[in-house]
Sequence to fold (982 residues):
Amino acid sequence: MAGPLLETKLHVPRRRRGLVARPRLIERLSLQAEPALTLVSAPAGFGKTTLVAEWLATVSADGRRVAWLSLDKSDNDPALFWTYLIGALRTAADGVGGPALTLLQSPQPPMEAVLATLLNELSALPDDVVLVLDDYHVIDAREVQDGMAFLLEHLPPQLHLVIAGRADPALPLARMRGRGELVELRAADLRFTPEEAAAYLNGVMGLVLTARDVASLEGRTEGWIAALQLAALSLQGRDDVAAFIADFAGDDRYIVDYLAEEVLQRQPEPVQRFLLQTSVLDRLSGPLCDAVTGQDNGKAMLAALERGNLFLVPLDDRRRWSRYHQLFADVLRAHLLDEQPDHVPDLNRRASAWHERNGQPSEAIRHALAAGDVERAADLVELAIPAFRKRRQEATIRGWLDAIPSDVVRVRPVLAVGFIGVLMTSGEFEGVEDRLRDAERWLEPTGDGADATRAPPAGMVVVDQQEFARLPGAIGMYRAALALVRGDGPATIGHAQRAIHRAAEEDHLTRAGASALSGLARWGGGDLEAAHQAYSVAAEGLRRAGYIADVLGCSITLADIRITQGRLGEALRTYERALRLAADQQGGVLRGTADMYVGISQIARERNDLAAATQHLLRAQELGEHTWLPQNPYRWRVAMARVREAEGDLDGALDLLEEALRVYTGDFSPNVRPIPALRARVLAAQGRVGEASAWAREQGLSAEDDLSYLHEFEHITLARVLLARHGNERAAGAVDEAARLLERLLRAAEAGERTGSVIEILVLQALAHQARGDLPAALASLQRALTLAEPEGYVRIFVGEGAAAASLLRVAAKQGIAPGYVRRLLAAVDRSDGRPVQQGLIEPLSERELDVLRLLGTDLDGPDIARELSVSLNTMRTHTRNIYAKLGVNSRRAAVRRAAELGLSARGRNRQG
Amino acid sequence: MGRYEIRVKGHLDARWVAWFDGMALTHDGDGTTLIHGDVVDQAALHGLLGKVRDVGLPLVSVTQVDPDN
Fold:
């Protein structure tokens, strides 16, 4: 959960006693039409909330579950909005949305991924859920609106959405209307009919009005319920009812002015004062009201207001919190502003102080800003930033930043640097350099050296001394991050080193952050050993600071570097060490634990222990989403896709990769194995060369590109695509192009000591040589690969490359190359039971078809083949047709050639021999 | 950004002036009120319209006024 949620926002409003029954509207709301969206759109005071709450009672009776969310302005922060929305859903469907909440914790959470994950879960819900979003008109943030449009577009049938508000939401309503997916109730539907007005005034409110009086009131208010309520309150206990109604009907004044005046005037003076003073509050409780009014009767006053129907809406069942009806609150505020403008800042200041004392910084800051007390607001924001950043509510902090004048920020280095952190996390780098320089000026020694006791420079304001001590290191760290974003590796490393040097000895967090940045710069530059070293320092610093989950995050990077270096054993030990560290922690399974199992699974797959690889992935899943780092949803799917691929289920692998792409969320690490490249590899293995080539085109990749470590995986993938093109289309020059690219890749990988890459490149090189008919060169490359791979127990890289690689291994075995290892590899090929042999095929050939195929490679004609196999000529032709279809060819010669490439004919012979 | 006139139905009490951030209010004979004054930018204009919406005032028209007139 991103911080504590206000439960009152998730509270389904209590049905009030004495309501006018509105069967005509309840009927329209019924879900018989199975609409995706029910829209209740009308101005304030039309009874939207009351009606929906009333209807929900019938919905619950139907066995559907209901969830409610009352929105307010602060929900324009997407992190907060979706956290609350999931929080609401969880009141109806226990524990739903966990992975989405996890994703929301990542910097700049990718909303589509968050929503795709959420929708996935919602579509598996056993019961129907009705989710009501009340006061939706407060939402104006584009990002939230886009997210809602996406949600609606993909809404599973179990979920019914009800949106209530004073303005139509920015959603594709016309289209939904056209498709019949929308049920709407608007002002014209909601207003009281004359009958309902009569039932309300004479029934519920106990007035004794003539039909003419009722008609007159209904006409003047046009059925506006809030106005009728005010009218009823004005009429209660009045003798001159007819005269009042006549006056009111003949008056041009804005209805609410006329009536609210009446209602207020009729309250005793203390009540009037209480109403005006507390109108500055969004939510009311007895103690808060006391703090604002300076009285001690808040609780009793609120109870009296509720009894008197004075527009007080309870927000929880315990009657601790309530609010004024929005329309009434606005009228009260207008009165307050008009009558006691000088009093308003004071009231807000007192409210701010109360919220601060009660640990509600958001409200404390809102009231400080409403009081115009930017200094106080700045103090509060400075103290609040660390916690809000931890909860990823950067958009909320941005809102404060916009409200506090820059000259107030400038003299507060802690606040300024806090804002810089927020800007950078939101991907805004413009002006950050200037802000850093401004903040840093306060840190420069003014007189004789930098001793700790020297007085702070005049004019500087610091509230959070602990954060202030961290500034020198933090500023250096942000400089390093800025340089990394610019792609300036050397500057990143320089700033990071200065940050480490300037950070206090015990400020492990800053030192670790700077070390990690320097590690990232070195990683991106391909200097893996230095990157590993820096990341080890970062991991150790994080461990000392107690950020164990982040240590696990670092372990992924550390292991990944080792894998690229061809050191599978060390990668495995890195994960195992991290697991032991996690196990030592108190209190449940640590976040990141699941990711370690995903990592271990990858190594098991590389070593061809597919059963163990699957087991580890299932374990990661069973541990539950609270043990996942934000990237795990995609990493897990990628790992599972590669296991499926190894098992020969290429379609399954592609499905998982598609899913992985949808839930992909990056971090600061370079994305060295992009999912689209993995997808292209599977497509190439399937013989879908056109699609694989299209990937290379889209990425702008070519065999002549300059090589860098960051794109190594993509370039190796390109070589695979070229080899597949050669195999499939006999594309002229494709194999030569592949060979040239592989040669260059090999040199680069060797120079960077990336043995893991070297092994893969050598295997592909062997295949390229083989395809060009140069067997000795092929064997030479293979032998080098085998020598490097054997100590680390690599298997997949040799046995997952199809029949051509298998036949090359057989030749190597005959020639006595790495005999023990090759024998193990060949055993693995045989164990996989023919699947890899036919790996290029979407649909494998049957035994009978393999027999026909073998004979197609001889001089025999059709009738001869049929005789040879003792089948009819027709049956033989059916087999042939199927073979052509499966191989994707349309002639006997092409079939024979394709079979040779796939090693299928060789297999037929082996079977016979 | 310029001067705007927002016409709403009903005569609005003068007390709303402060609530509408100092805009002037003028009652017209046809039972409408003109809320008029300078508006800094589009965001401020929308904020104003949001206030009109929130108190349930029926909106009749919004007009930009040429400052020379």
